[in-house]
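Dear support,

I submitted the protein below through the web form. The confirmation email said the job was done, but the results page showed an empty box. After a refresh the structure appeared. I'm attaching both so you can tell me whether what I see now is the final result or a partial one.
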Amino acid sequence: MRRALLLPAVILFWSVVVPVQAQQLDVIGTVDLPAIDTDSLETGGSDVWGYVAPDGSEYAIMGEIEGVTIVAVPSLEIVARIPGPTLRARSYWRDIKTYGHYAYVVSEAYGHAEGLQVIDLSGLPESAEDVAVFRGPNDELVSSHNLSIDTETGHAYVLNSDGSIVYIVSLANPTEPEIVGGLTVGDVHDVFARGDTVYVAEGRQPSFTVWNTANKAMPELLSRVTIPASGYVHNIWPTDDGRYVLTTEETAYKSIKVWDMEDLSNPTLIGEWLGVSRLAHNVLIKGNRAVVAHYTSGVYVLDISDIEHPRELAHHDTYERNDDVAMDGNWGATLPSPGGYIYASDQTGQLTVLRWREAEL
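What the results page shows now:
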């Protein structure tokens, strides 16, 4: 989240949100983490990610106001708290991804461990250890908003401090990251990388791009799409085969959009969807399902097997106070873990652990 809420004068409705069938998100439990009240808004909780240890044990890693907290699942026991930067910049945002037995964390705040923070998870459940911080050239990775890790090639894609460059970072030595290239994008909010293909949500530009990064020193721009009448292009996620992408705009009444990417010279908008609160934050995809973090509406699971017509399969409202068109409530949600757990993080500092009843997603 980086911008003020936009409220257009005309309200459009793309879909009627009706569950398809009695799929279920069961509530395993909640964990309350540190947050603060600011002008009647609770803030501090940010993004969340999952980690599966070599022995199969599962953990949720959630950003909160003082750093990140690691919670064992399904016991909901807090097993580690790792401090991070706490001097506030634009927000207390923390973004977390994992590679091997390490977690990598960025934050827009300043202070302890500012930069790309590396946490060794190999000691879980007994402990986790802050082992390195990579600040980048001229401190370019200090106050970074977002990162993605391509686990196939072992590279992280990390925003610089002002969101004008996505640095390509080798994790060949996991505790000594090395910059090997970069994407100059002008403005970026979110990045997703998989198998040398990188998707960039370009924020205020307002567009998204697709890149070939097989040559890390000379990335190739494959496609740029300007979204008509766009809000703030917030995040992007491809289907498993890369044929389609879904985008969010984190702007009131702007839909989650489905794009056909088969012809990269002419991507086509083929579908749209939006939940009850009319303000989506992030979308993630695996198989024919999408998981949506949808602010005051909470978490949705969508069926995208008919890609042009996304449909609600299940919903859990993590923020029961209201369904206002506001940047309150649910910030992040994960794809189901091997055990079927979905982790949802609210700005109130609450971690909600859900279990998806389908055997596979």
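Response: this is the final, complete result; the empty box was a page-load delay. Residues 1-21 have pLDDT under 50 and may be disordered.
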